[in-house]
Amino acid sequence: MAGPVPVASSLSDIYTVDAIGTQAKRWNNLLARFQTIYGQPAEFVARSPGRVNIIGEHIDYSLYPVLPMAITADSLLAVSTKVASTNTKEGHYKIKIANVQDAKFPAHEFDIPYEAVDIDATVHEWTNYFKSGLRGALELLRKKHGNDFEPKSMQILMDGTVPAGGGLSSSAAFVSSSALAVMVANGEKTVDKTELTELAIVSERAVGVNSGGMDQSASVFSERGSALFVSFTPSLKVRPVSFPKTNPELTFLIAQSFVTADKFVTGPVHYNLRVVECSLAAAYLNAVLNPPGTQLPSDASPLSVSLHGFHETYFALQEHSSGATKSKSTESQLEELVALTAEKLDKRDGYTREEIAAVLNISVDELNKKFTSRFPVRAEKFKLRQRALHVFSEALRVLKFMSLLEQQPTNTDDTSEYNAQLGDLLNQTQDSCRDVYECSCKEIDELCSIARKAGSYGSRLTGAGWGGCSVHLVPAGKVKAVREACEREYYSKLDLSEEQKEAAVVVSKPGSGSAVYLVDDKPGPVVVDDRDRGSEVY
Ligand code: ATP
Ligand code: GLA
Ligand code: MG
């Protein structure tokens, strides 16, 4: 799985057969528009997909493992580096960037100084996502080639089909494809997937959202036909996960709520606030459960202290002091942490800054500096109890889900009971997201209950929540019934275009991750399959 980002020689390397016709038209349209806008052909296309998360919600930034998979919808960046330098400022390179949806995402031109990429995270501007990929990629290029490295000018046309703010991570698809495009434009013949993912994780935070690492990992590493188990400690690791053969066969349906959840806009009261609450909970539990003076390890989480860091420290100290020779299983550790949290964090209405600072033995100013200065948050009280309970119990559900997948069903003629166990874990995740983590919304709750009544084994929000998308584990024979129920009871009440109605509920098959397609090598329409059927172009 690790290794270089693949260079696709044909669209068949990227998409499944059923998607090829539509995708080939889209790619050819992108390349033709590139020629029209810039008066020359693109040299290559960088591609990264969106993702749907199966289980493990809002725990990646606490450094617990998650199970997403890539989807077909993606971000494409067509690029050429042959940019006329006549009007570029001295000591600068030029970035011209346009979007096929030019009414929504207007074109821009930037002269960027060699030394630094300035990103104004106070404004909500689509090109910030490109710039964050650019900044991260240039840091890596400087590490490789020295500080005098001079970036190339680029002209770019973007086409993204992941719905923006729809919970399917259009942002990570965009940032990962941007970073990949910058690496290739600057002459990197091979781009290491782990390096690309790590830089995309850190650099996406420059747009003002303190996100974890699930989306970028799924976007870069996924392989067609498999979900992806992503773990973050001691370092980023991924492995493909297959679903066992079941009867009835299992299908994942993605259903849009059409409630746009823009994390940039609501960050101070939603996403970024949750990140702060989780780190504060880690610091608080460390202060009340570990010996005085214990420092949590500084880790790769957005605020450098995480619930996972507390988890490891707590049990390492317990084992050391009891002289235990055998470690407890991670499942029993998480069960113990759920019980300890319920006991030690007993204030259900939340904790003020003063109350937390007193327990951490620091001033409120120090607390603000450490936890709330990087990304502003708005809260009188921090719900440490609820957030820690969600994280530990969700981490446990991921382990249970994985062990079910590894066990395989016993009665292969009828796996209904096994399917229901998987679905039940998804339903428990939704309950916890709705009631404990408070990241659902009434529209998603409604879609979940409609789908369950129509035969879904398990239904829940996917991605950040507060709108966006839901995911449903549905027996193949019930897909039609679930789709019809959603249409009848939910979508018919909204004012949707034909295109939106079409995209509202889709069956999601695990897709492939990032790829580069070199146009230079193959002038003319994109190649669809040059291995099995001879070159066929659309
Ligand atoms: P989630 O993170 O919940 O999975 P998401 O990634 O789609 O959902 P955000 O993280 O809020 O949502 O990112 C959405 C932003 O990404 C948009 O507001 C826009 O700035 C940028 N973006 C996404 N798709 C495109 C696109 N096709 N063209 C230009 N900008 C885009
Ligand atoms: C967003 C973030 C991810 C993750 C999810 C919630 O998609 O970008 O890092 O935190 O929300 O699981
Ligand atoms: Mg996002």
Automatic annotation (TrEMBL):
It holds the Pfam family GalKase_gal_bdg. Its EC number is 2.7.1.6. Keywords: ATP-binding, Kinase, Lipid biosynthesis, Lipid metabolism, Nucleotide-binding, Steroid biosynthesis, Steroid metabolism, Sterol biosynthesis, Sterol metabolism, Transferase. SUPFAM superfamilies: GHMP Kinase, C-terminal domain, Ribosomal protein S5 domain 2-like. Residues 421-491 form the GHMP kinase C-terminal domain. Residues 33-80 form the Galactokinase N-terminal domain. It catalyses: alpha-D-galactose + ATP = alpha-D-galactose 1-phosphate + ADP + H(+). Pathway: Carbohydrate metabolism; galactose metabolism. It comes from the Eukaryota. Residues 135-222 form the GHMP kinase N-terminal domain. Belongs to the GHMP kinase family. GalK subfamily. NCBIfam families: gal_kin. PANTHER family: GALACTOKINASE-RELATED, MEVALONATE KINASE/GALACTOKINASE. This is Galactokinase. It comes from Podospora comata.
